[in-house]
Amino acid sequence: MAQLRYIYSMPVERIVRYFNDNGFHVNKATANGLLSKTADMFENLYTALGRAVLEDNYISCDETYYKVMDRTGNPDALNINKEYIWAMFAMNLNLAYYFYENGSSRGDVIHKKLEKYKGTVQSNGYAPYKSLRGEILRVSCFQHCKRKFLDLQGNPDADKIIELINRLYQQEHKHCIGADEWTQEDNLKWRRKYSKDIMKALKVALKRIISSPEYPPKSQMYTAANYMLGEWKGLENIFSSGIYKLDTNTIERLNRYISLSRRNSLFFVSHRGAERGAIFYSLACSCRLGGINSFEYLSDVINKAASLPPDTSLEKYRNLLPDKWSKK
After folding, report:
1. CA–CA gap between residue 273 and residue 287 (Å, rounded)
2. What is the distance between the alpha carbons of residues 309 and 167, in angstroms, rounded to a whole number?
3. In terms of DSSP H, where are the helices of 90-155?
4. What's residue 207's pLDDT?
5. pLDDT at residue number 87
6. Do 302 and 280 meet the contact criterion of CB atoms below 8 Å apart?
7. pLDDT value, residue 169
8. Domain presence at residue 244
């Protein structure tokens, strides 16, 4: 049931109908109750997952939204609001972690989550990421920059920026860490070699755009160039390591599961429902990243989690996460 809901993005109503059509009789209230109890059972596992992600020295962050019903103050009112779910992806461990804080997209949500983090954070140019402090190296995303110019294709200045960014990708794809004994150190040397001239040409082209009277400050072209220049330090930081990705495409692909569910299921019926969704999306997407069948994983782990005493350490749960799990 959890796999159908959170991986295949089926609404609970459709899941119930599917079960009933195949001889397993269950109603919607029972289905929701089972999912809720399972999420409660996974709380410690989910906590261990969040801790593991923050132990990775290279994470990618993003945020997406979902519609959530809010009956606060008036149980009879049907208020459906656009609320936000935050996402983190441990780039080395291949673990995904979604979290929901009453739907808030405020910067203090991600700041609090990362207040003790030490490592690299890759993100788009959303202001809360850019204002992260402490021992964090922020790297940016070329695709977010490129998309703003794709909307202006046909304009020679936009086409020039797109061509230069594409050239970075063409050079990057000539080698792959792990293939033909190519190492992280090899990749770093290669990046430093190929990126220097392309980045220099990009910066010159961007500065030409924002200094041109053809593009006033409120124009789409000026906005696109100014955004990329604002991300420049984060873009340069990508080439300070052999492993940093050129973009945040991995975590954005994961967020498609939420966007698909958003289209199919309309909304969560409460903030607690959204929190429950964050738990299941975290585990299900981590399975997908690790090439693990989420049905087999959830079926196995739910029995193991149910057998653990209340005072079980988080280290024990850590061994049940998808990157360490083995079916026995």
Report:
1. 21
2. 55
3. 107-113, 127-130, 142-150
4. 98
5. 96
6. no
7. 98
8. no
Please tell me whether residues 110 and 258 are part of one structural domain: yes
Alpha-carbon distance 323 to 289, whole Å? 9
CATH code at position 13 = 3.30.420
| Predicted local distance difference test score (pLDDT) of residue 183 | 96
Query: How far is Cα 52 from Cα 323, in angstroms, rounded to an integer?
Result: 10
Q: Which residues form the domain of 157?
A: 142-238
Q: Is 76 within a domain?
A: yes
* Residues 205 and 273 both lie in one domain: no
Q: What is the pLDDT of residues 98-126, one digit of tens each?
A: 999 999 999 999 999 999 999 999 999 99
Q: What is the pLDDT of residue 155?
A: 97
pLDDT in tens, 152-172: 999 999 999 999 999 999 999
Do 221 and 160 fall into the same domain? Answer: yes
Residue 43 tokens read as: 């709380």
What is the Cα 110 distance to its own chain's centre?
Answer: 13
Closest CA to 42 of 325, 296, 280: 280
Whether residues 286 and 267 fall in one domain: yes
In a domain, 328, yes or no: no
Residues of the chain short of pLDDT 50, as ranges, are: none
Interior/surface letters 21-39, b for 16+ CB within 10 angstroms, e for the rest: eeeeeeeeeebbeebeebb
Q: What is the pLDDT of residue 7?
A: 77
pLDDT of the residue at 74: 66
Rg (CA), the chain: 22
Residues 134 and 152 in one domain: no
16 and 119 together in one domain: yes
For residue 317, CA distances in Å to 32, 138, 220, 263, 305 come to: 25, 30, 49, 33, 8
Helix, strand, coil percentages for the chain (3-state, nearest 5): 55, 10, 30
Q: Tell whether the torsion through CA atoms of 293, 295, 298 and 299 is positive or negative.
A: negative
Distance CA 303, CA 40 (A): 13
107 lies in some domain:
yes
Q: Kindly report the pTM of this predicted structure.
A: 0.91
